[in-house]
Write a structure and sequence with these properties.
339 residues; Aspartate Aminotransferase, domain 2; binds pyridoxal-5'-phosphate; globular; Aspartate Aminotransferase, domain 1; alpha/beta
Length: 339
Amino acid sequence: MKSFASDNYSGIHPAVLKAIQNANEAHEISYGDDYYTAKTQEIFESIFGKVQVLFVFNGTGANVISLKCCTLPFQAVVCAETAHINADECGAPTQSIGASLITIPTTDGKLTPELIKPFLSRIGNVHNTQPKVISISQSTELGTVYSVEELTVLCIFAHQNQLYVHLDGARISNAIAALGVSAKAATADCGIDIMSFGGTKNGLMIGEAVLIFNEELKKHATFYQKQSAQLFSKNRFIAAQFSALLTDNLWLDMAQHANNMAALLAAEVSKIQGVTITRKTDANAVFAIIPPHAVAPLQKKYRFYVWNETTGELRWMCSFDTTETEVRDFAAYLSGLCS
Ligand SMILES: Cc1ncc(COP(=O)(O)O)c(C=O)c1O
C-alpha cells in the first residue's frame, strides 16, 4: 500500500544502508570514541559551524536531552500547543526533565514574541513555574516554515528575556531546503541555542543528532544523554549514516525532493472540485479537507492520517522516496472518488 502517512514510513536511502555496511568492517571503540563519530562531527561543523554533536536514537530522545540541558525542574518550556513535545511524546519531556510545558495556541504552528509575551508576566513569582526556554519546531507540525527573519526576531526576544531557544528539527532539512539558505544561516546565525537534526524522516534507518551551539548548554549534555538511555554503545552505526546523509548535499537534495512532491501534490489535488488545501504547503506536508464520503475509500488504497477528527482535515506527507507518479496517481484516484 502506498503511503502518504508520514515521512518516517519510508525506508532507508541506499547510500545510508551502504554506510552502515562499510562501518561493519572491523572493531571500533564504543560509545562514540570511534573514527566514524569523529569524522561525522567534523562534517557537521563544516555545515553548521562550531557545534557539539550528540548522536541519539530518536527525535523524542533528542528533545528530552535538549530540554534537559536548558531547564531546572522548577522551570518551564514555552511551546506551541501543536508542538510534538506537547501533543505526541506521551509526556516524555515533562516526565524526564521535571520542568513543565506552557502551551500556546497558534493559527499556523509558529510562535511569535507577541504570542509569548503574556506568558512571561509571572517570571520571578515563586508560585509559578519559570519559563526558561522557547521550543519551536522547524518545519512545524502544521507544515509551515519559519523565515530566517522570524527566527532571528524570536531568538533576540528570547535572549532579551533570558530564555534559550530550542529547535525541534525532526524536519529541519525540509525547512532549510525550503528557505534556500545555508544550514548555518537558518539555525546558529539566527541565535538558536540547541536543536535536533532529524535523520529517520530523511533516509536514515535510525538516529537523530542533537546540535548544541550555546557553550553553557554543553556542560552537562553528555551526562544527560547517558542518563536518558540515549547513548548507543555502537555509536559508529548512527554516525556513519549521518556521514552518508551529509555527503554531497544528499540530505538537502532528499528534503528538496520531498518538498517538491508536496508542492506537486497540493497543486494537483487543488484542481479537484470539493478539495480544499487548508494550510500553506511550505515543506513536505499537505493539509486538506476532501468530501467526507471520499475519506474511507481513499484510505483503503493509501495510508494517511486524519489530522483533525472534528473538522475532517487530513494530512498527507511526502518523503524522499515519494515519486511523481505516486503523487499523480493519488490525485487521479482522489479525483475519481470526488466526481
Ligand atoms: C516534529 C517532530 N519532532 C519529534 C518527533 C519524534 O521523533 P521520534 O518518533 O523519532 O521519537 C517527531 C516524530 O514524528 C516529529 O514529527
